[in-house]
Amino acid sequence: MSKPLLELLIAGIKFALVLGFVSVNALFLIWLERKVSARIQNRMGPIYVGRPQGWLQTAADALKLLTKEDIIPAGADRLTFVVAPAVLFTSAVLLFVVIPFGPGLIVRDLKLGVAYAAAVSGLAVISLVMAGWGSNNKYSLVGALRSASQMISYEVSLILAMLSVVILAGSLSTVEIVEAQSRIWFIALQPLGFLIYFIALLAELNRAPFDLPEAESELVAGYNTEYSGMRWAIFFLAEYANLFAGSALAVTLFLGGWQGPWLPPVVWFFLKTFLVIVVAMWLRWTLPRVRPDQLTSLGWKLLLPAALVNLGVTGFLVLAG
């Protein structure tokens, strides 16, 4: 077999593994969130389908969605409407390219890995605007515009928090950032940076208390109002794929990645990632939804100045040795 064909085969295998992991992990996270929310609200959660813990309930729901009728509204922009879920899911999958699960366990160690992650995450807002515009529904369009303004408000703070870590590590490579934390995790040096990143991440993922694009009490369901069946399921899977990818990136940048004693590196990485995910779920089912003006004020008047100050202080201290 020639070298180009071998490289193509290896790339195809890696893509299939990532796609399989993203899909299965998303199903697990849906089950986990149901259980976490049930415990917070003093309920049992899923228990019957897949006893004793209801672990087959999500699989049954996925099968139901895949067999439901796929309806495209008569007045919709058909191409935009159809492509939007695929763009969102693709952006989620592409993030996994630069996430190091362990030593040597990375799809591609890009020298500009952090810049790549920031660029890919920006594709999500395009897909949501496509979904809102293509649906030809005023509630969908309002939800999409809310999502765009929200992501613009918090994307800058998110990237500035990531840049503070880049300055400390002296590299944009996610692998080299993890290796730079062999002595001390960057969360000890960047507690404010981690807090800014985590708050901005929740807003980027449209999760409560920042879930205004999907505010059921105001917008029915937001940008995905007109979606059903498999296309709606793709939006749902992409949300949890992005949750895992964003949490994994937080672990990579601030929590030492795979670093840890005794246990295998991969185990440490997943333990830290799921800890961040559970905290995000905990906040979702604890805090009330904020108003749109509160959302933008927090992003522009508090997080952005704090991120700029944090970046400036970090750069000064690094230059000062």
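That was protein one. Protein two is written in the same sequence-then-structure order:
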Amino acid sequence: MTNGDWTRRDFLAAASAGSLAAATSGTIPAYGNLTKKAGKLALLGGEPVRKNKSWPDWPYWDDKVIESVTKTTKSRIWCRIQSSTGTVPTFEKEFAKLIGAKFCVATGSGTQSLHTCVEALGIGPGDEVITSPYTDPGTIASILSARALPVLADLDPASFQLDPDEVEKRITENTKAIMPVHMMGQPCDIDRIMAIAKKHNLKVIEDAAQAHLAEHRGRKLGTIGDVGCFSFQSSKVLACGEGGGIIGNDEALMDRCYTVHNHGTSRRGATETIGPKYRMNEFQAAVLLGQLPTVLERHARRNENAAYLTARLKDIPYLVPQKLYEGTNAGSYYLYAMSYHKEHLNGVDRATFLKALSAEGVSLSPYIAMGLHKEPWIDNILKSRVYKRMYSEERLRKYREESQCPKCDQVCQEMAMIWASGPLLAPKEDMAEVADAIEKVYENRDQLKAV
């Protein structure tokens, strides 16, 4: 068997919680070629660890995807309202089953899914929703679109997730919900978030846009809060260019989500409420359906490769993998994220480190340059006529004062990540070269003084 091939036994082993346990215990064997780590850094003219190699192509497609799209094209059923058995209704049933939820409503994007849920829960002008500053702008857009106030709480800098203590500090009499974001596809501290929500009688909208198939204490992310929202944008581990999905177990709430996303028209055909037109089209669902037969195999491979990298990096102090909370069984590994600690690399700044590693053939990215608390949208809404009408001058003044997230700033300054949807599907020898390159830079860190 080659390193790129998998047997059923390999798949089942990697899909189990043992992968993550092995990562933390350091029992996964190293495959690195130690001779590659000796000598001059490639940035200074030495031989790179990884040379003239590419990563697996992304987005993923195969013949099943092509067949599914072709079938939909020939059917002339291109809109979900044409058929109750078309690709969108079929995908909704299959995705709900895959995640372990009773219901699913498919939308045109992850942002649309989040906004649909905000509206379906009756959250609007004068209300507040607590969420993360370290996320895609779509998270706060879903709240702003309902003319509610996105309240940003700071992070746990080791996990890059919302700090529950900071969440609780932000709760006011106008808080209606918490929107935790499972960053990088790993579970946030969801047990504590749910406990806080229960204590204060708040709804929980899980932003699981990056977290397909991730598990916490045996529960798939998205099934733990009142509703869970996913993105199927082209970079995601399950992708169709643009697309989103809402999952939940509360039939009445999910029925409201359907009504909202269907321009306020219910399954009964009556126009009942305010709602945008957020329906997923049949071609998006066709692309997704074509991937479902093999999505678990790719999920397992990412978890196995991530566990291997984590084990290899356990003794490298300058690059620390994302902290996983107790109860994490599996991640989606949309990103494989690490914190860069320059004090362990002779004080070399992150930009120089990234250049050194890139020269070795391994490119990492800082990801989000700055948190949403530093983006100009805050000044925009504080000056807007609409928000001045809906919120008191005192509340808006205090909102500006409280929109400081120093731990998020720290994460933005330290982040170094591998975009993992494609790269973490590579064979094990590629993962070994990633680890070799990181080790080489560390072992030859004194050479960086000359850069």
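The first strand starts at residue 103 and ends at 107. Keep this in mind for the problem set.
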